[in-house]
Amino acid sequence: MVDRPAVRIIGAGPTGALLAILLQRRGHAVELYETRPDPRGRPPESGRSINLALADRGIHALRLAGVFRELEQALLPMRGRLIHGTERGTSLQPYGQRPNELIYSISRHRLNQTLLEVAARQPGVTVHFEHRFETAEFDQGTALIRDLRHDRLISVPMRPLLATDGAGSWMRRRMSSVHLIDAQETDLKHGYKELSIPPDAAGRHRMARDALHIWPRGNHMLIALPNEDGSFTATLFLAKHGEVSFDSLTEPAAIERFLSQNFPDARELMPDRIAEFNDHPVGFLGTVSASPWHYRGMTALIGDSAHAIVPFHGQGMNCCFEDCVEFDACIPKHASWESVFAEFGALRKPNTDAIADMALDNYLEMRERVAHPKFQLQQALSLELERRFPQYFIPRYSMVMFHHEIPYQTALRRGTVQAELLAQLTAGTASTLSDIDFERAEREIRARLTPLD
Ligand SMILES: Cc1cc2nc3c(=O)[nH]c(=O)nc-3n(C[C@H](O)[C@H](O)[C@H](O)COP(=O)(O)OP(=O)(O)OC[C@H]3O[C@@H](n4cnc5c(N)ncnc54)[C@H](O)[C@@H]3O)c2cc1C
Prior knowledge:
By secondary structure, the chain is of the alpha/beta class. Helix content is 38%, strand content 23%.
């Protein structure tokens, strides 16, 4: 077990706040530095996604930290994808088949506020808002942090300083610029923009509130998640540049044409669409990869700062929460922070690489494959195979979203074998489950997959 000096954390987003709670439980004093003002008692800042999908991995971590109960009443269950076709029809693709196989929409602001409230009321946790990490002097083992209220620089010792400062991490960029680590930021050619679907006159949701709505349109898509106040937050994912892109959609007439051609039913529900389209920024999407995640026993990257991913599996924050639990579990096994950091990176990176790949793959699935009859047959078949052979076959989506005990890399590996099987079993003219040869399916499954523990 490492000594218990104060731990410094930069970035009080979901990762930093949850980590502060877990570290305090281990007996560490925690100093948490955050650029932004205190979000408690304030309306949400615009910019980042307004709501998030929370799933089993995130819930498991929140339960372990004792925070879940305070958030439970703010969760809106979503039981499947409600696909909006081009002809205005809809169809529900359930996410799972057991009553608890749901994902939940939660307000980012509410989640951040609650985590910070819980963190700040722990004895020994101090949160310094409006304090921005600026740089680190690794030869001296110190970090420079600017107190924005008084415009003065303060120097704090690292050993350890945990950097949970998000996808654009200054700490990661600093470590990379002095060649302590290798780091890449890979931008997606697509960006996103948020639009809103307000409640009806009675304050109710204007579409089914127990689903994640998707309008898959091949090269772009719209999704919408429910909010507690009866509204939905819709997110348009689209190429940043090119013929049909955010660049090309600037004139009201062009925006109207694009929305009515692609999402006529959603367009009617968005009275402020033109103003929002013009006012809301185009958000950046990308994947961050870094190695190693730490420097000696001084500092370590955790959460998005180490491995930000694209949002198409709804796992970024869930994965960050899992980071916190795994990091916390490494602490009692080691006598130095350097060994804690090294073990954490070695255990965790293969899993975060796996979810990064699956998240990219899921973009194609959401914007394109979900609309194809063959994909829908394979979805139905994978649930049927899980019913018949639960020891061997769990759909990849379910492994990721509903089974925190299955590591991401196992989900990726088994999912690849399962995808081949599904393709073989549904090849040719198969169009319904009655066309499937289940005896062959059983033989192949037993030959190619080991039973799950
Ligand atoms: C459009 C979109 C949709 C998403 N949807 C989902 C979803 O449905 N489900 C899901 O699980 N994940 C989702 N994610 C991912 C999720 O938002 C992130 O994985 C998560 O926010 C990462 O948490 P974090 O605390 O590591 O980083 P952040 O949330 O980025 O927090 C970092 C914190 O550090 C602070 N900070 C930054 N720089 C400094 C500095 N120099 N000094 C001090 N403080 C600093 C920031 O102000 C911030 O508070 C989505 C992401 C996007 C972009």
